[in-house]
Amino acid sequence: MPPRLPRPEPHDLLLAFAGCAVTLVPMLLWNRRCEARRRAEAAAMARERQALEQGQSERIRALRETEAIKDQFLAIMSHELRTPINAVTGFGSILQDELVGPLNVRQQEMLGKMLDSADGLLVMVNDLLDLTQIQAGRLDLGRRPVDLAEVAEAIADCARPSADARGIGLALEIDADLPTLLADELRVGQVIAKLVSNALKFTPAGGEVRIRAYAAGDGDELVCEVHDTGPGIAEEDIARLFQRFTQLDMTSTRSAGGVGLGLYLAKALVEAHGGRIGVRSVAGCGSTFWFTLPLARVPRADAPHM
């Protein structure tokens, strides 16, 4: 049998317990203090997070209210500005047609500049109105059968006097067998007009602007291109082109006018039709702006019946 161990005396147990207590009690107190500190820090972080979230929510709400006020202001001001501009252009046209009396050459020249400026201002006001409709989600498209060749020819006829005055050639290259598409004719014409106007702004005298349209791929989409022989666009600037209120030349001496909405609106109108828009350009080699529209074929009136 193994030898029996001596039974510990009570005072020895008390001494051992006291030794353990001396070691463990400080540790327990320290752990409790750390736990209390951790809970206090967690509660402080939760309060700080809540305050940040509340502040962020308030800032977001304030930004939304500011954005709504800005859109409302733009809509009201754009609408109110159209009335005096229409009066200027209306009465100016009466004077230009000499319905109230003859004008000399100098007066006709000054009146023509005034009407051109009024037309440019009206374009800006209409762009602002379109911007407010797009941002409010109220852009409605009146889709109907559209002959793109007729639309492009009409835009070219309107732009040709300006191109001729600047010594810029304006050419059309439209496929003869383009199918009819379902689209908003006014909005499609607006896109082409903005691209042509943009091309004319940056094409020097002696250059050329060319409008081209054709059916791509398997005939499921239509492509329209506006090519110019201007200075081209640097690759790092292309990403900014279709942002609102953006112009690549923002210097005080820039020669091209506008408020930087043309390409933004063109992009919004094309995408509202389910299409795409982009640009191919190399600095010093001109630019080609293009957009696509999905083709929903419409039977022509002269098509044979089977």
Compact description:
This protein is an alpha+beta fold and 306 residues long.
What's the SSE blueprint?
Blueprint: H1 10-96, H2 105-135, E1 144-146, H3 148-165, E2 169-174, E3 181-183, H4 185-202, E4 208-216, E5 221-228, H5 235-238, H6 262-272, E6 276-281, E7 287-294
Helix pairs in contact: 1-2, 3-4, 4-6
Model description:
- There is one protein chain.
- The protein is of the alpha+beta class.
- Helix content is 55%, strand content 14%.
- It has six helices and seven strands; from the N terminus they run ααβαββαββααββ.
- Strands 2-4-5-7-6 form a five-stranded mixed beta sheet. A two-stranded antiparallel sheet has the order 1-3.
- Helix 3 packs parallel to helix 4.
- The C terminus is likely disordered.
Spans of at least 5 consecutive residues with low confidence:
250-254, 299-306
Structural class: alpha+beta
How can the largest sheet be summarized? Answer: 5 strands, mixed
Extended strand count: 7
- Indicate the mean pLDDT: 81
How large is the radius of gyration? 36 Å
Relative strand content: 5-15%
Counting DSSP H or I runs of 4 or more residues, the number of helices is 6
Helicity range? 55-70%
Distance N terminus to C terminus?
Answer: 117 Å
- The run of helices and strands is HHEHEEHEEHHEE
Oligomer state of the chains in this structure = single chain
**What is the global morphology?**
elongated
In spatial order, strands of the major sheet run 2-4-5-7-6
